[in-house]
Design goal:
Blueprint (H helix, E strand, L loop, with lengths): L13 E4 L3 E7 L13 E7 L1 H11 L4 E8 L3 H10 L3 E7 L5 E7 L5 E6 L8 H6 L1 H6 L2 E5 L4 H13 L3 E5 L13 H5 L3 E4 L1 H8 L6 H12 L5 E5 L5 E5 L5 E3 L14 H14 L4 H15 L12 H8 L6
Helix pairs in contact: 1-9, 7-8, 9-10, 10-11
Length: 323
């Protein structure tokens, strides 16, 4: 089935429950050394991993709803941004609380480092999950990140599991100690555990700096029995593990020298992957389209601004007729 022929099935809504806020991205040649000052270009834009995933999903054609918590400082701006991308926003406003804020340092080689103040994200609690349980029951795929409280995520995953929903989790940790709290019982309920190399290392408690180490770390995580493990690699596409396949490699559609900014690439992958699953594409095809979207976004500077729309994905797909 070609993407042009695929239609959006509104009964297959994608629900993102996650972080949302404002990013301040600073582009520079390299991170300054101690005592050194450098010029940098500064841009402000909506962000948060949950928000990123929702935008990537909606732009790829997924019928998307987002649940998050904001302060009383950026509510209107973030709500309008979600609606601009045809996302249904459900935003709880916390008075006298600052919205999630991230400072992202991006070097000229595309490597980024991020500082996060979760702010209002910390108020996304189980009460908000209970208030929206009908929406969870009526959704097809639910996506989580861990920039919101782990207790809330674990609780919501249990609710999704009880209702036979497709669960996607990116264990994007603000604090490294979170990986000790992510229980195997929760991991077992996740349909797609999607990580980068750093997250892979944190969960497995093993290094993941080369191909051999990554394979060992994947084996360790598979002992925790996620239904599928996908590792999105910066230089080499991604890897799939499940009960049927081990270490199945998917190529990237860009060269290392093409990377201008890798910030948000994993969130782009997750959103596009979910969109194609919701349109009845098989696992292989959904992964390939998600990789294709990543190849588009890493060649641009910025996070959400770099995420492709459906027509851009279609154009790029035609460049690879025999993938």
């Amino acid at each position: 089935m070609g993407i042009e022929e695929a239609t959006i099935d509104n009964s297959k809504t994608i629900l993102v429950i996650g972080s949302i806020g404002m990013d301040q991205t600073i582009f520079m040649r390299q991170v300054p050394k101690l005592g050194e000052a450098q010029f940098g270009e500064i841009k402000d834009s909506p962000g948060g991993k949950g928000n990123n995933q929702a935008v990537a999903c909606a732009r790829a054609g997924g019928a998307t709803t987002f649940i998050g918590v904001v302060g009383d400082d950026f509510h209107d701006e973030l709500k309008k941004a979600l609606e601009y991308d045809n996302i249904t926003p459900i935003l709880l406003i916390k008075k006298n609380v600052k919205t999630h804020k991230a400072i992202i340092l991006v070097e000229s080689n595309g490597i980024s480092k991020t500082l996060v103040n979760p702010g209002a994200d910390e108020y996304l609690d189980t009460n908000l999950i209970d208030k929206n349980i009908k929406l969870i029951k009526n959704s097809y795929i639910i996506i989580f990140d861990l920039e919101i409280p782990l207790q809330t995520v674990s609780y919501a995953i249990n609710k999704c599991y009880e209702n036979n929903k497709i669960i996607i989790l990116r264990p994007s940790f603000i604090a490294s100690e979170y990986h000790e709290e992510l229980s195997e019982d929760t991991i077992k309920k996740v349909n797609y555990l999607i990580v980068n190399e750093s997250e892979l290392s944190l969960i497995s408690k093993l290094p993941a700096s080369n191909e051999e180490q990554i394979e060992s770390a994947c084996k360790k995580i598979m002992e925790m029995e996620p239904q599928n493990l996908i590792v999105v690699l910066k230089k080499n596409g991604c890897i799939l593990w499940n009960k049927e396949v081990s270490n199945k490699k998917y190529c990237s559609y860009y060269d290392e020298n093409d990377i201008k900014d890798f910030t948000g690439a994993v969130d782009c992958f997750i959103g596009v992957f979910a969109a194609y699953l919701s349109k009845n594409y098989g696992l292989d095809e959904a992964i390939k389209y998600a990789n294709l979207a990543v190849s588009i976004c890493v060649k641009k500077v910025g996070t959400i601004v770099s995420y492709p729309k459906l027509e851009e994905i279609n154009i790029e797909r035609r460049k690879h007729p025999n993938w």
